[in-house]
């Protein structure tokens, strides 16, 4: 089974249905040699499966949703003008991984497989941020490139981080893309992805607030 179907199997064991909002080619096309053993923890199984692909998962109600974050995703909501921003913190840095080397094994020929993937632009500033992966699930060069691409994509997303506090938006979902306008931080329509949602209630003042944790696209 491909990664997506194994995820659906695991979620099904705890009564959650997997639905696809968007998916990568790797989620539907990578068939890992994957074993689930007695007493394996479900959350660790899912983390392991998601390490093969650039996709993410969030749970809402009785469903788990598969999402493929893409840099071309459009913003679904705006903060900073009609919806006020009380405060915010924003950070953009270099990628913590800019080269991925994947070693695999071709079970047919018995030969080792080695692929290297790079972000050339990031390597101009930092040339030695290499992640090495040895995984016998990788049986083809294409599979190695898919896995390396997933790690580089996550490094790109994680290179930007931050948070904003604002009045509550009850329609906000994890991994939505929003745009943020905050002249105090030099932001005008800056696109960010929601990676965490916290809602607080100050009973003595009768005030609800939300904190959104953010990443890059």
Annotation keywords:
single chain; 217 residues; alpha/beta; three-stranded mixed beta sheet; 5 helices; 12 strands
Separation of termini?
29 Å
Instruction: Evaluate the radius of gyration.
Output: 20 Å
Task: Please indicate the percent range of residues in DSSP E strands (runs of 2 or more).
Answer: 35-45%
Strand order, largest beta sheet: 4-10-11-12-9-5
Quantity of strands, as a count: 12
Could you report the average pLDDT, rounded to the nearest whole number?
A: 93
> What is the molecular shape?
globular
Give the helices and strands as they follow along the chain.
Answer: HEHHEEEEEEHEHEEEE
Largest sheet: 6 strands, mixed
Low-pLDDT residue spans: none
Percentage of residues in helical conformation: 10-25%
* Count of alpha/pi helices: 5
Structural class determined from secondary elements: alpha/beta
Give the tally of structural domains: 3
Summarize the SSE layout with pairings.
Elements: H1 3-13, E1 17-20, H2 25-29, H3 42-50, E2 56-60, E3 63-67, E4 77-79, E5 87-92, E6 99-105, E7 112-118, H4 120-123, E8 130-134, H5 141-158, E9 160-166, E10 177-182, E11 187-202, E12 207-215
Parallel strand pairs: 1-3, 4-10, 6-8
Antiparallel strand pairs: 2-3, 5-9, 6-7, 9-12, 10-11, 11-12
Helix pairs in contact: 1-3
How would you describe this structure to a colleague?
There is one protein chain. The chain has about 220 residues and is α/β, with parallel strands linked by helices. The chain has three domains: about 5-65, no CATH class; about 75-90 and about 160-215; about 100-160. The protein is about 20% helix and about 35% strand. It has helices at about 5-15, 25-30, 40-50, 120-125, 140-160, and strands spanning about 15-20, 55-60, 65, 75-80, 85-90, 100-105, 110-120, 130-135, 160-165, 175-180, 185-200, 205-215. Strands 4-10-11-12-9-5 form a six-stranded mixed β-sheet. Strand 11 (about 185-200) and strand 12 form a beta hairpin. It is globular and about 65 Å long. The model has no long low-confidence stretch (mean pLDDT about 95).
